[in-house]
Amino acid sequence: xxxxxxxxxxxxxxxLIAKSTAPLKPCNRFLFNSPSSSLIKTTxxxxxxxxxxxxxxxxxxxxxxxxxxxxxxxAVNNTMADVSDSSMDAVQRxxxxxxxxxxxxxxxxxxGHDSKYNCHLMEKIESENLxxxxxxxxxxxxxxxxxxQNVGKEPPPINNGVKECHKQxxxxxxxxxxxxxQRSATKVTFPLVWTNACCSHPLYRESELIExxxxxxxxxxxxxxxxxxxxxxxxxxxxxxxxxxxxxxKAPSDGKWGEHELDxxxxxxxxxKMHPNPDEVADVKYVNREELKDLVKKADAGEVKLxxxxxxxxxxxxxxxxxxxxxxxxxxxxxxxxxxxxx
Length: 343
Known about the structure:
Pathway: Porphyrin-containing compound metabolism; chlorophyll biosynthesis; Isoprenoid biosynthesis; dimethylallyl diphosphate biosynthesis; dimethylallyl diphosphate from isopentenyl diphosphate: step 1/1
GO cellular component, one term: cytoplasm
Number of strands: 10
Strand order of the largest sheet: 6-3-8-7-10
Largest sheet: 5 strands, mixed
Function: Catalyzes the 1,3-allylic rearrangement of the homoallylic substrate isopentenyl (IPP) to its highly electrophilic allylic isomer, dimethylallyl diphosphate (DMAPP).
GO molecular function, one term: isopentenyl-diphosphate delta-isomerase activity
Family: Belongs to the IPP isomerase type 1 family.
Oligomer: single chain
């Protein structure tokens, strides 16, 4: 949302509060509750979004603020429409606005944070050069086979409105979802592609901002392996991850969405138990070198799709590093000083 729209909303709200004759009692709530209220939390208002003074002066004023917010300008309404994006299901919509990615410069210095939504909009990536920190986990079993996942899945159609929506235990944004005849692919960026075991982002939180020994990124990797693949933390101790290097790349997904990441490459060899999350993962499989080479040939022929970051790692590093995994010499490959800019 632009600064101009922020100003309109803030100014309109301030005028309404000023006209009210009821006692003004500040409270730490958002201006209103709606499926799109998280928009406020991730928008740069003139004052902190988490301490907007909603001033409990009565329901009438709060409703007036809601109406003013909804009709301040057509741009606001367009932004609200963007929030209920048809490319996202309820789970992804929540994550896109609640998860705060770590913004970095090209030298991997933290420069701020922003919503996952903004970090993956190509318009934002191109106009503001938003670059966020990410990680990619390459997990090998004791036979040195590489775990792959197929990202996301095509959810079942929703044809029976709210009843079907609740039947599927979708409690958040249910009314929005039920208006659609069919939910789109669960993953917003690069759905239904083959990739390495886990690819995600450390979040802007204390435990995942720790720079020493790359502990923040390791903590995030452990968290997401549980979220996506159901791998318990004890199966992937944080000190077992080997950070091998970092790559910087940009990749559009579908025109609207894309990636611009400074990606930490984490290797680990473990025998793990898996219970993949069907909202995140369509399929999993272990492959040996030859099977991966066959998969790459199929990708070249257009028969399957690989994620762009995975393909960059395969083409530039993976098979050499795979040899070192088997030989027990992986530490020799570690280079965390260089940031490889790949295209």
